[in-house]
């Protein structure tokens, strides 16, 4: 914390989610120690990527793995891999996709800010369906000899109107079109690290700096070895589209340590701890006009609970007002807000035990103030 004090940067209590804008997550000692150790030596980056990728693939029950500088970089590099394969001339040509397969199919209902990572490769996004429904014939009709891949965003926030992933995979296999799944924040459960590839997805992208608690500037592409090899030639240290998405030796080793740690955690115990935090919040916050309920699943469909604090019209305070006062206090506390702005959401995923009481005491102080 000393470095932040020196810079005059305020630290936060994260009761909202593993958002990049507030630093993702915190790294455990195993990850920090691995990164410090990695920083002390020179290595061949290609060899390190290969060896770390082999270990991660084994840990996650996949054919191959490629470490990136984040999930967005993973989307860009995996898209590039589908266009170029391991052909050095095609790798050199990007982001000029003239005379190459340069169309990427995406659900209209799944268009979002993260698809910029795909577009920067130089491709044209071909939308299918509408915001309410998509039919299988629409996906099949969108496939042409220019189709490089199909990208599917796995978050529950993008599920409405989309075809089920298994249907997309079935059609992709029929026409030999690779399927890339963005599963950046889809942990827990731990089984998701191999679920989508075992379903038939060709590559799946995860963030390293969210629930895995690896370096914030890290991500991983899991999938078929042939496409992982194509990711490697499109990534740093090669002079390619991914050169600007450099991942250092510290991030490579740090993410490996994070994944080794994560797959060996007692996930049932962690779930019980999160449930206990939510129950504790429900027990402690008892005020007129306020109800506290267990909210499940997580923000994008993850299998963990949150606490929803709902403010009725009879309450002297509004959710927006309480959220603002939590953020304006010391320490600054970041909580979520419901879509209708009638409640705040306390996410226990990143909280330490002592931070739960800090949050509850602050909320109690705010609610006891009639101003």
Outline type: globular
Give the beta-strand count: 12
What is the CATH domain class of the largest domain? Alpha Beta
Percentage of β-strand residues: 15-25%
Low-confidence stretches: none
Distance N to C terminus: 34 Å
Q: Predict the CATH topology of the largest domain.
A: Aspartate Aminotransferase, domain 2
Number of helices: 14
CATH superfamily of the largest domain: Type I PLP-dependent aspartate aminotransferase-like (Major domain)
User: How many structural domains does the protein architecture include?
Assistant: 2
Average pLDDT over all residues: 97
Strand line-up of the largest beta sheet: 2-8-7-6-5-3-4
- Tell me what the CATH architecture of the largest domain is: 3-Layer(aba) Sandwich
Question: What is the element string, with H for helices and E for strands?
Answer: HEHHEHHEHEHEHEHEEHHHEEHEEH
Helix fraction bin: 40-55%
Radius of gyration: 22 Å
Q: What structural class results from the helix and strand content?
A: alpha/beta
* Major β-sheet annotation: 7 strands, mixed
